[in-house]
Amino acid sequence: xxxxxxxxxxxxxxxxxxxxxxxxxxxxxxxxxxxxxxxxxxxxxxxxxxxxxxxxxxxxxxxxxxxxxxxxxxxxxxxxxxxxxxxxxxxxxxxxxxxxxxxxxxxxxxxxxxxxxxxxxxxxxxxxxxxxxxxxxxxxxxxxxxxxxxxxxxxxxxxxxxxxx
Length: 165
Description:
The chain is an alpha+beta fold and 165 residues long. The protein contains five helices and seven strands, in the order E-E-H-E-E-H-H-E-H-H-E-E.
């Protein structure tokens, strides 16, 4: 019998310090990009966002190009929590591994089946509906290392294996 544990944020800030993977950063919609630009300007914060997907006539998604989130304060608190992007609202539920979650690592090392709060699952479903189709339909993707490249089949693998309910 597998032990069950509920995931909760430890507020360690580790996820906010790993916004980019080996080739790509966390995905943002154009509306989220604009919202983050306004928030950064009001706070005099430098924000480095790059295109992520191109559908042949316009950029459809953007990505963080910075390793650490510029909106994370010294006490590991998000200074834009109310306005944070979808990819942050669904954390640690990611279709691809980018960040590390201290709580999830601890629970899975101890053999727990991890359950997530309903608001995280809802955000994950929203991501699948809004962002995943943009990733799949793109003609090109922008690699942080190599620039624009053809959009080969995008595989979604979680850092943590399958996530069950």
